[in-house]
Amino acid sequence: MDVKAPSARCRECPLAEQPVVPGNGPVQADLVVVGQAPGDQEVRQGRPFVGPAGKALRRAFDSLGVDHLSKVFFTNTVLCHPGKNEGNGRDRKPPAEAIRACHERLRGEVEETGARWILAVGALAAERVTGRPARLSESRCSVLCRPLRPEGVGGHDALVGITHHPSASLPRRLLIADIRELLSFRYKGRLPDVYRGDGDSSTAW
Questions:
Q1: Residue 126 is inside which H or E element, if any?
Q2: How many Å apart are CA 6 and CA 149, to the nearest integer?
């Protein structure tokens, strides 16, 4: 079996036979969005964050004037769909073996973009990016200190915002507030180059 993505340990992954949905976006990006796993729509289209939850996130970006089509890189903790729960038909949480097998790939992907702002969507993504347990009730709408722990994306120097998954039954304004909060912080004196127009944020880091 071939490795589906650089640094991924696909031979150790229980999802190895599933279709892969690679990260998508510019080679160099100030902002990377990390989710949990691709869903049905993502598998069909071969791109992350294009299903209902992804569209909700992209609409939130639109409302803030963020150019997500050409200036944001989207990826997931694992690149393959983990399947559905038999009881409720919802997407399963990726198994631990798959998360571990795909972690070096995630780390390398983030570092290659050079991103200094990372939006972790959901608790699992937050844990894999930061290297620490995440409770969204305590961590959402917050920006974590840098550098990130080695257990996360390897000490990569970045600002990390944590938000809930767009499919959660929470008001859309909270998602927008979380994104605005992250993008309001300056990295070494500058704001992220993700807006279609001029950003009006001014919070210093």
A1: helix 123-130
A2: 22
Residue with tokens 């070096």: 104
pLDDT digits (tens, 9 = 90+) for 142-175: 566 565 677 788 667 888 898 888 877 677 888 8
- According to DSSP, the residues that pair with 39 across neighbouring strands are none
What CATH class has 10-183?
Answer: alpha beta
Angle at 175 between CA 186 and CA 110, to 5 degrees: 55
Output the six-digit token pair for 187: 């990295």
Contact 56, 33 (CB under 8 A): no
Asked whether the beta carbons of 76 and 21 are under 8 A apart, the reply is yes
Return the DSSP state at 19.
P
Alpha-carbon distance values, 145 to 40, 67, 172 (Å): 34, 25, 26
Structure tokens at 75: 């990826």
Pick from 108, 102, 202: nearest CA to 154: 108
Do residues 142 and 161 touch, judged by C-beta distance below 8 A? Answer: yes
Peptide bond into 147 cis (omega under 30): yes
Low-confidence stretches of the chain (pLDDT beneath 70):
1-4, 137-148, 154-155, 169, 197-205
Domain spans of the chain? 10-183
Structure tokens given for 99? 């998360």
Classify strands 117-121 and 159-163 as parallel, antiparallel or unpaired.
Answer: parallel
Give the three-state DSSP class for 190: strand
